[in-house]
Task: structure prediction
Amino acid sequence: MTGKNVYWYVVYTRPRWEKKVARLLDEKGVEAYCPLNKVYRQWSDRRKLVQEPLFKGYVFVHLEDEHKWDVKKIDGILNFVYWNGKPAVVRDEEIETIKKFLSEFSDVEVEDLKLAVQTPVRIKRGILMNYQGIVVEVMGNKAKVKIESMGVQLSAIFEKKNLEPA
Result:
């Protein structure tokens, strides 16, 4: 699609309909991306390499902004994923990163980093790298972390992607 306002959106699908929705979108001429993860599954009589959706219940759709509502008519699509009250837009670079990562690795796991108050965390980057602290407050994609060190208590706000469970 070569429009001026073409974006990647994320749609929710019926459970276990990700590949089917991607195929239905393709049949309608809509560019869709359902990232597939190569995983080994064990049955009683054999072990097989299968392709499963990396993001359960989601498919990425590349659409012109003015046509985005048309895809909700496709069987299996429940709704858009929303961010700040609008359908979430995913940057082209993020889609390319997912494609590159999946071409290089198999058996990929997606972990949703759930940070709750009182969770011990370690800081991954920056001047406080490797310091450990406790989550005091969670605000969207940021968390306030209490760090006790050298007899003082610091509180700082970090992006969740800069924190990992300690």
About this structure: The chain has a mean pLDDT of 85. The chain has two domains: 6-104, 120-165. Residues 120-165 form a domain with the SH3 type barrels. fold (CATH 2.30.30.30). The longest strand covers residues 6-13.
